[in-house]
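Quick log. Single chain, no ligands specified.
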Amino acid sequence: MLPVTRVFYVLHILCRYRLFSLLPAHPLITPLILLQYAMPSSWFGPRDLSDGQRLQYALEALGPIFIKFGQLLATRRDLLPEEWTNALAKLQDQVAPFDPKESQRIIERELGQPVGEIFASFEQTPMASASVAQVHAATLKDGREVVIKVIRPGIARTVERDLAVMRFGARWLERLWKDARYFRPSRVVADYEEVIRGELDLNSEARNAEQMRRHFLFSPLLMIPMVHLSLSNREVMVSDRIRGIPVNDIEQIRAAGIEPRLLAERGVEIFFTQVFRHNLFHADMHPGNIFVSPEHPESPQYMAVDCAIAGRLSKEDLHV
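-> predicted structure:
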């Protein structure tokens, strides 16, 4: 069922940022543009923004599920103008954390034991909070430092609601604008639907992480933290904690004595190894998920987290 209230809110935001004006001229688009300028929200919307910024700010206003969709669009330079994709690349998937007591309740429900019986310590304040999950630091009884990823309560309903709106919008765009077939908006939404549903299942992420970890178990190129499968399920995942330098912090990388050129060469080697040797690759390698170990600057090792989104090539693609 289409969430009508949400549709009207999305329409309000589209008008506020005058996004209908970004569509190419067409007789069927004209009523939408007239509606846009008839809406009071467009009268008081921000001015002096580029087209890409208007799109960026609109997605931010629509919330985390649309923000993640914008992050996907930022990678589609084959479909969108460079100015748009550059603006969308600035989208940050950061939302306010939910109550730590709720997080603890979910952990205890899913793992079947009180937090104090599983962990020697548990940090109430989350390390990170994103649209789908938030992460807490903890220590196991044997002293190992771990992180606990917990799916956000109610996020599945939010995802289904916003996906319904996206599918509705994509279908209408294809009906109103015949050239939309070149952009295949329904296909883009379907691809995003597959991605976001995968992020809702931590069992899937755990399987991806463990398989990638085994592939690089004794490699100096890449390290994937171990997932504690006995303490993980669909809504909770416990993995070893890593400490590294964010891959986009070039100043800190140089200060650690690591040569960026060597790091770049190793990054290319990792990519081709994952794609063509293992046929399983990390498909969400943005700076928030990739770190560099400072331990061996002469032979730098990447560290990757968040393996929820992974890709494989078909047999046909592998042998092109």
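Residues 202-223+244-320 form one domain.
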